[in-house]
Amino acid sequence: MTQTTDSTGAGADGALSFDLTSRPWVQVLRSDGSQDELSLRQIFARAGELRRVTSDLATQEFALIRLFLAVAHDALDGPKDIEEWAELWEDPDCFTPVQAYLGEHRERFDLFHPVTPFLQTAGLRTARDEVFSLNRIVADVPAGEPFFSARMPGVERLTPAEAARWVVHVHAFDTSGIKTGMTGDDRAKGGKVYPLGTGWAGGLGGVFVEGETLRETLLLNLVAADTEGLEFSPGDRPAWRREPCGPGSDGRSTTGLRDLYTWQSRRVRLHYDADGVHGVVLGYGDPLAWRNMHRSEPMTPWRRSPAQEKKLGRSPVYLPLEHDPARSAWRGIAALLADRLEETGGAEAPSRLRPRILEWVARLVAEGLFPRRFLVRARVAGVRYGTQQSVIDEVVDDRLVMPIILLHRQDPTYAHQAIAAAEDADRAVRALGDLASDLARATGAEQEGAKSAARVEGFDALDQPYRGWLSAMAEAPDPFEYRQTWQRQVREVVGRLGDRLVDAAGDAAWEGRAHTDNKGGTHWLNAGLADVWFRRRLARALGDPGHPGSASSGGGATAPADDGPPGPSPTGPPDTDHAETAPEVHV
Length: 587
Prior knowledge:
Elements: E1 9-10, E2 16-17, E3 26-30, E4 35-38, H1 40-45, E5 50-53, H2 58-76, H3 82-90, H4 96-104, H5 160-173, E6 179-180, E7 192-193, E8 206-210, H6 214-220, H7 257-261, E9 266-273, E10 276-284, E11 302-304, H8 306-312, E12 318-320, H9 333-337, E13 352-353, H10 356-366, E14 375-386, E15 391-403, H11 413-443, H12 448-471, H13 479-503, H14 507-511, E16 513-516, E17 522-525, H15 527-541
Antiparallel strand pairs: 1-2, 3-4, 3-5, 6-7, 8-14, 9-10, 11-12, 11-13, 14-15, 16-17
Helix pairs in contact: 2-4, 2-5, 11-12, 11-13, 11-15, 12-13, 13-15
């Protein structure tokens, strides 16, 4: 196992040095389950022996994968087309050219280089020569609330390896807010630069494809230059093949994937000594608008923005579709399959675009490089910012294994049924939440807490069943019948949870109390009536063949409104916002 050192090395002239091409700094999981820390050279030399990159946060792994892809794209100068990609896939030594490439650019990968430190600006300083706490770049230390951090109450020192990982991360996911102005940056007013947005990846709903090994992961995300829907430029270069950044910004736009994957959204300078890194200077770098970047950025879904279209007077305008931390990846599957399902032959642009990285993998299957039953392991990673994007509130980290047939261009039937099945689960869990709310009303208790807890329990209970159902979908000869199998499973699981809620309701709920509905009518609500309403909602949500108002098995159709009057009758619950409408599903 590679030995890790906490101290900096020294160059021939005695200056401190930390060469990322030869010094261990990337945390990895080997295929045998052991953990290690490797240099860039070792990463590419042993990629076939490694399971994946590991990291402090999922967002750090996302940022590192993009860095490695920039190295691979630039070292291989491609792949230019799918035929060249296929040759790489078949060649176990496909990354051999990376070794010479890293040797050629080794100087730019020195974390402590006096002139061109890795992803930093040499001589960066504030007017007062302030050096700030490392909390500014270490994202797992919540600002002002370090109660659940392993680094409590802050970060005094980092090893060079740790510091290198957080430098990569800060360019991708740094928070917005007012930052100290840097000397020489003409954007500084009164020593401050006002908010210019988060790091580039912070605005994305990050998605990449995982393989069985790190080699497969890198190749599956190594998009060929002839990919439809993405723009490539012959002048595209990563950050280390550009002139070092000064303290300000020249306002340029991105030139392609290599540039975008290493975009310098911040200006950074580490302060260090022989014992490691002890401080940082951090300011704004190159801002980049997320608007209509869908032809440049493949690792996120996109949504049309009516507000931006109205403001700019043009259409369509697409913005990244960010992850919702409250939803598991499977509940947002529509965002991963989106635009192909909306093509109707008209001129109207789709309301959403799925990640181009998934479109690329679908093409590999369409070209016969993988079988139709190939399973796509979509990894999602992102952040939810709070307080005007000045702090990180939550980090999203999830995986979804799905058959490639869901991305089929000509036949969207399987994808339609996969999305509809997620909507089945959503409607059923709404019905469970409404049951908990009705039982609470029957006793005069607070409703929202009970409803929320029941919904969480419902989604938790359906999480693994849906993932298993989805991954086996390619084996189903009839996707409609396969969805009906799912509906029966949901009815059983959610019905059983409903039984538990009713059984635990207590005598007060069975006795009940008078309740006034939204139309001003008064009726007697107890556990028995709440259970009747729940069974009826569940039947409607899951396509009960015996119920004429049930959801269709042909898609996520909206169930019709109640055909019975409100009141204390088993024909229908009061008119409230229950699970009668299939929700729009987001990541």
